[in-house]
Amino acid sequence: MEKVKILICEDDKELLEIFNLILTMEGFEIDIAERGIDFKNMLEREKYSLILLDLGLPDIDGEHLCKFVCENYDIPVIVVSAKDNVATKVLCLEYGADDYIVKPFETVELVARIKSVLRRSKKRFLSENKEDLQKRIRWGELEINPLGRKVLKKGKEIALTPKEFDLILFFAKNRGKTFQREDIVETLWGEKSLYRWSRAIDVHINHLRKKIEDNPANPVYIQTIPGVGYRAKK
C-alpha cells in the first residue's frame, strides 16, 4: 500500500515538531518547507497526497501561494493559519482550498481533518470509472477529456484549475438537471459545511463561465436558477 506523503509549509519550528511527531505516529510521510520558495521547488520534484499550508510565511504571501497551488496542482490543500477572520477563510476557499484550520488547534482535530480530506480525495478518484475516463464528452462547442483532464473549445485548449475541471465535468455529465449549491459541493468534494457561510462555489462557477462562455453575463452552458442553484444546458 502506497504511503500518504504530506508536504508541510510552515516556519514555526515548535509547531513543526508537533506536526512531525503527530503525523509520523499516524503513519504519514512528511516533507517540510519553511519558506515559500522551497515549498514551490519541492512541489516540482515530488508527488504529494496533501498539503498543509501556513499563510504567515517569511518570503511569499500565503494567500497567493494558496492560489498558485490550487491553480496548478490537483492536490488537496488544508490551510493552517492564525488568521481567524471570515474574509481570509472565504478567500482561501475561493482559491480552491479544501479546508481551513485556525491556530491554535487540537491535534486530534488536525488529524481528523486530514483524514477527512484524504477520504474525500480517494472517494473522488475511485468513483471515476476507467472506462468512462476514456470517453471524451462533447457538449456544444466543448470537448472534454476526463482522462487527460483537459477541455477544448473549438479545438483550442482552455486552462482550468482542478476545481473548475471538476465542475465542468460534473455539469457535462448531468445536462438538463438542476442542482442546489450544497449538493454540487457535496457531490464533488464531499464537504458542504465549509461553503455554508460563503459563496465560494459561485466564484468557481463565475471563473469557469468566463473561460467557456462566449458571453459570461448571459451563460449558455451553466445557467443560474434563482433561489435554487444551477442547471446544465442539455
UniProtKB/TrEMBL annotation:
<dbReference type="GO" id="GO:0032993">
    <property type="term" value="C:protein-DNA complex"/>
</dbReference>
<dbReference type="InterPro" id="IPR001789">
    <property type="entry name" value="Sig_transdc_resp-reg_receiver"/>
</dbReference>
<dbReference type="Pfam" id="PF00072">
    <property type="entry name" value="Response_reg"/>
</dbReference>
<dbReference type="InterPro" id="IPR011006">
    <property type="entry name" value="CheY-like_superfamily"/>
</dbReference>
<dbReference type="GO" id="GO:0006355">
    <property type="term" value="P:regulation of DNA-templated transcription"/>
</dbReference>
<dbReference type="GO" id="GO:0000156">
    <property type="term" value="F:phosphorelay response regulator activity"/>
</dbReference>
<dbReference type="Pfam" id="PF00486">
    <property type="entry name" value="Trans_reg_C"/>
</dbReference>
<dbReference type="GO" id="GO:0005829">
    <property type="term" value="C:cytosol"/>
</dbReference>
<feature type="domain" description="OmpR/PhoB-type">
    <location>
        <begin position="134"/>
        <end position="234"/>
    </location>
</feature>
<keyword id="KW-0597">Phosphoprotein</keyword>
<dbReference type="InterPro" id="IPR039420">
    <property type="entry name" value="WalR-like"/>
</dbReference>
<dbReference type="InterPro" id="IPR036388">
    <property type="entry name" value="WH-like_DNA-bd_sf"/>
</dbReference>
<feature type="DNA-binding region" description="OmpR/PhoB-type">
    <location>
        <begin position="134"/>
        <end position="234"/>
    </location>
</feature>
<protein>
    <recommendedName>
        <fullName>Phosphate regulon transcriptional regulatory protein PhoB</fullName>
    </recommendedName>
</protein>
<dbReference type="GO" id="GO:0000976">
    <property type="term" value="F:transcription cis-regulatory region binding"/>
</dbReference>
<keyword id="KW-0902">Two-component regulatory system</keyword>
<dbReference type="InterPro" id="IPR016032">
    <property type="entry name" value="Sig_transdc_resp-reg_C-effctor"/>
</dbReference>
<feature type="domain" description="Response regulatory">
    <location>
        <begin position="5"/>
        <end position="118"/>
    </location>
</feature>
<dbReference type="InterPro" id="IPR001867">
    <property type="entry name" value="OmpR/PhoB-type_DNA-bd"/>
</dbReference>
<feature type="modified residue" description="4-aspartylphosphate">
    <location>
        <position position="54"/>
    </location>
</feature>
<keyword id="KW-0238">DNA-binding</keyword>
<comment type="function">
    <text>This protein is a positive regulator for the phosphate regulon. Transcription of this operon is positively regulated by PhoB and PhoR when phosphate is limited.</text>
</comment>
